[in-house]
Design goal:
single chain; 341 residues; alpha/beta; eight-stranded parallel barrel; 13 helices; 39% helix
């Protein structure tokens, strides 16, 4: 097993063994919605379809980036996630593809079009790797491996700062991201991994030509705490000190919807139910990204992931019905439905 694959397995083991990695502070619990006893709709009328990256999804849901590598279990997880995404008509983003450039066998975990021929698939590279030898040729190859509809460039400075082998040179990245945007044949999306994107971050991304942003706020999986489990010095508590650092998902949504109404926002980080999804769409998100709730299901089977997606879909449809909203457009930015705007 390669060093990178070993690190990915250590991440999965930490998630399985430490329930406190799930922080539960995304901000959605504090948001209260009104209730329509006369919604003037039939439940069957609800239409949660949306357009994303040129394709129609049956639900504004993205299976967020989790993993990838040359480990057979990791390949099975990605296969189950992709097959479920195709079956349910939702989008999927893979974990970081950096590993495929050092381990040829890892490419197999990202070759998913055979099980997901039609739905939205998003490739993924760490933006910081542009300061460590990666360029637009790597971006194009990542896209080609997945036959992707878009490319995530993820930003994870906190995780890299805590990670024993982290890459922490974030100098001049915005200019290099702009080159990737120009030279990549699919849309490039900017993504955090659990500490949120600020309005200043999105302003830099817009200058680089990006129009899709995955906020990935605080409140779900804490990658700082995950990396704490991999520390080399038992006395090193940096990962615990920063485990709740950053903007919550709700804070990131509210700040950026106000500051940047002209971009597409993906809400992720601590979304755990269809009600959370409804709150995120109301606050201006076009799509909701969810990862952790699908992980255990993906370790079991494709059918288990499908069941988890169907549960979320039923919850989301029910929330729209009880709010009197026929579709996503009727819900988005409808602050009249907030009891505590």
């Amino acid at each position: 097993m390669s060093d990178t694959a070993r690190r990915k397995r250590e991440h999965l083991d930490a998630i399985a063994q430490d329930p406190a990695i799930e922080r539960g502070d995304s901000g959605f619990a504090a948001i209260r919605l009104t209730h329509r006893a006369l919604p003037e709709l039939a439940l069957a009328d609800i239409d949660p379809r949306c357009e994303f990256l040129g394709k129609t999804l049956r639900l504004p849901l993205l299976i967020s980036s989790m993993t990838g590598g040359d480990d057979p279990e990791i390949r099975r997880i990605n296969h189950n996630l992709a097959a479920a995404a195709e079956n349910c008509g939702v989008a999927m983003a893979v974990g970081s593809q950096r590993v495929q450039f050092s381990e040829v066998a890892a490419e197999a975990s990202f070759r998913l079009r055979d099980v997901a021929p039609d739905t939205v698939l998003i490739a993924n590279l760490g933006a910081v790797q542009l300061n460590y030898g990666f360029d637009s040729s790597h971006a194009r190859r990542a896209v080609e491996t997945l036959t992707a509809d878009g490319l995530y460039l993820h930003l994870n400075p906190l995780q890299e700062a805590v990670q024993p082998e982290g890459d922490t040179d974030y100098r001049d990245l915005a200019a290099k991201i702009a080159i990737i945007v120009r030279e990549t044949p699919v849309p490039v999306l900017l993504k955090e991994v659990g500490s949120g994107l600020s309005p200043a971050d999105i302003a830099l991304g817009k200058q680089a030509g990006i129009r899709h942003f995955d906020l990935a706020g605080r409140g779900g999986t804490s990658w700082s705490r995950i990396e704490h489990h991999r520390r080399r010095d038992p006395a090193d508590t940096l990962g615990l000190t920063f485990q709740d650092w950053g903007l919550s998902t709700v804070e990131a949504l509210r700040l950026n919807r106000a500051a940047h109404p002209d971009v597409t926002l993906i809400a992720s980080g601590g979304i755990r139910s269809g009600i959370d999804m409804a709150k995120a769409i109301l606050l201006g998100a076009e799509l909701c990204g969810i990862a952790a709730p699908f992980l255990a299901a993906a370790q079991e089977s494709t059918a288990a992931v499908i069941a988890a997606i169907h549960r979320l879909e039923r919850e989301y449809r029910t929330a729209l019905f009880l709010l009197g909203c026929r579709d996503n457009a009727a819900l988005r930015d409808n602050h009249a439905l907030l009891l505590n705007p």
